[in-house]
Design brief:
mainly alpha; single chain; 0% strand
Length: 293
Amino acid sequence: MKRSVNSKFTFAISMAVFGTIGVFVRYIPLPSGEIALYRALLALVIVGAYLLISKQRMALYEAKKEIALLLLSGAAMGFNWIFLFEAYKYTTVSVATLSYYFAPVIVTVLSPILFKEKMTLKKAICFVFSSVGLVLLTGIGNMSGQESNLKGIGFGIGAACLYATVMLLNKAIKGISGIYRTFLQFASAAAVLIPYVLLSEGINIISLRTDGLICLLTVGVIHTGITYLLYFSSLKEIEGQQAAVLSYIDPLIAVVVSVFILKEEITAVQIIGGALILIFTLLNEISFKRIKK
């Protein structure tokens, strides 16, 4: 019982930390691709060191059959970060995060096509209302900087599509799971992002001041490396539905940070839209039959 409570607390902490990443990214004056690259490299070092110290071995022979899927999912993860960081530049952290949380809705729609899963009435209703929430989130009403806001939401939705791709590919990867799979995905993301950064934005980290460097290290070491370790160590100890509920601490913290710390504007209509997305994506993941049992 105590172990279960500790795991829930650890999982909740990891979600809360994820929810603050937007603040730190805002204060890193580097191109989004370069931030994503350093995030992947730093996380790769942290997770790799953990696996070495704990003397855990990966069954790489089992992953060979799915290496293409692992590489593709890692690439999708890297560009998913780029799109999310771009979203932070053009709209508020809260709106970018809420747009990003449309990813489970995309998975719901594509799963029946890709994995022959049944599209139930409940899933269809959740999809419709989440979509309505996304429309409202685009900022219906009088909001300054509407063009920039829509561009940010566009990047947020793009990030959601890429994250949905990672989720769908993870469903197909059976041979390796948990932190091992994430380690390989970090490696793949770094491998893809290195040539992308060199050919597009170039290396600009030398221009970083101390505050920017601290924020970058925080994003790579704390928000990614350490928090992913906390996430996976606690995830295996709690039920899926509990994880689904606790995962919504992430966007809630992001909204609080955006409004009360960064002092960013969010309209009443956007709050309603964000609430619809979160409520109906959560309802889609909860099994009421299991709750009754």
